[in-house]
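Field reference: "sequence" (input) and "structure" (output). Example, Large ribosomal subunit protein uL4:
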Amino acid sequence: MKLDVQTLDAKKAGSVDLPDDVFALKPRTDILHRMVTYQLAKRRAGTHKTKGRSEIAGTTKKMYKQKGTGGARHGNKKVPQFRGGGKAFGPVVRDHAHGLTKKVRALALRHALSTKAQAGSIIVLDEAKLPEPKTKVVKDAFAKLGITSTLIVDGAELDDNFALAARNIPHTDVLPIQGINVYDVLRRDTLVLTKSALEALEARFA
């Protein structure tokens, strides 16, 4: 697949060939779903917690005598059926992450990139650099390129001026190539790759 390389001024700056083994796969929603679920589960803090009856502060004295009251038998007031008692089977602090093999994770990224390629939602930029961090400059560039919701992936090092200017724009993410991931690729309408990012992707999947 061949795409035009554009500048921030929406001018043509050559063309590139996208490798078919990365950008021309038939997208599999099952693999993409597994990867997104894996990523979101890994992000969960897992810090939700309720106190069980053994963690409630209170006396363990028996409430009243076993027989002769006409009521049910009870021990202390820390049991779940009383107000202020412990929670039965409540959530505990835990890690929600689950495993997914390295090959499946790599394949999921290829399918995510192929999804964007087949939808015609990939733009290749010559470079993502600015002489000064001006948000208005980036907004004007996005308007020329027809971008409203985007993930911009640059090389190993981000241009500080561009990153600072773009972070004020809603629905815009800027990542270095090592941070590219399936969830962020799919959640934005347009994927913008710089030439250095594209070279790094080709080297990664070579």
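Strands lie at 2-6, 12-17, 122-125, 150-153, 172-175, 190-194.
The domain at 2-45+97-204 is CATH 3.40.1370.10 (Ribosomal Protein L4; Chain: A;).
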